[in-house]
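Q: What does the predicted 3D structure of ABC transporter look like?
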Amino acid sequence: MTPVIRARGLVKDYGPVRALRGVDLEVHPGEVFGFLGPNGAGKSTTIRLLVDLLRPTAGTVEVFGLTPAAGGAELRMRIGYLPGELAFPARLDAGEYLRHLAALRGGRGRPRIDELAQRFSLDLSRPLQALSKGNRQKVGLVQAFMHEPDLLVLDEPTSGLDPLLQREFRLLAQKSVARGATLFLSSHMLGEVEEVAGRVAIIREGRVVDVDDVRALRARAGQQVLLRFAEPVSLAEFDSLPGVQDAVLDPSDGVSLSCLLRGDPMPLLLAAARHRVVRWQVQDRELEDLFLDFYRAPDRTPPRDSATSGPAGTETGTETGTEKEAAR
Ligand code: ADP
């Protein structure tokens, strides 16, 4: 089956700044794919390459088997794109703007404008220039979803939305997947995509450093365990157990042990059970912690082979990226 998105060794330079250093990605039909990384990691650049707002310096990208440049208007009709930064024309109100976009798409999506606006409690009569950040984001979401595209490419879709509207977004995302659409959504916060995404890629400094199922990522993120014993214990009993990392024994009392547990809990449980345990507290580490593991430790080898980055591209075939209209 042709992947919906396939990127191979994508490199993008902005003048002297190398924003992407060989990004490989493969997104399959019907997936909700999360694209995660800190600010400046290269998420928006990758997304702009997907929707033909930029052209790669090196490497290849295909959407539905076509390069975005070759796919042209026909390919764009199949994509709903939410830019990270929305640029709206002056003087139109939200409704006029959305109807204008629908007209550009041959009328597709127009019947859904009211329904989507209602879903997000968006007042269509408000002038675009007077909208708050949250309301601007709603307009962006309506225009991305209204023509029921086969692929939704959403750059930080829930930024600026309150929790209730984030929930509306998730419901809309689920509905889109149910009708067969594919979703590619970026975020700098793992928690934001955790509830909708199946697989996620983590991008850092222009490279994809990890691709995994959200649940597997959560398992790898591990748990923070706090133990308190009735009598002092020795750190040596715990710090080299399989699955136990970063074990610390409070030197002031010798009875409080904290550690990170990844994988099988039995070795730790058995070791602890040799003593009288008076407190046992386990906390899921947030995916953010796993993400920070990569972020904080530049030399750390990611724990999976698939985490390798693509080849760093060469300078040949350089095309200058051109920014076009931000919102389509
Ligand atoms: P993210 O979306 O993950 O925050 P970006 O793709 O926006 O990251 O940026 C990746 C890198 O490229 C950053 O170092 C950023 O400063 C740089 N960059 C992005 N856009 C431009 C631009 N138009 N000109 C120069 N550098 C840019």
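A (community wiki): The structure tokens above were generated from the sequence. The chain has two domains: 5-217+302-327, 222-285. The chain has ten helices and 13 strands.
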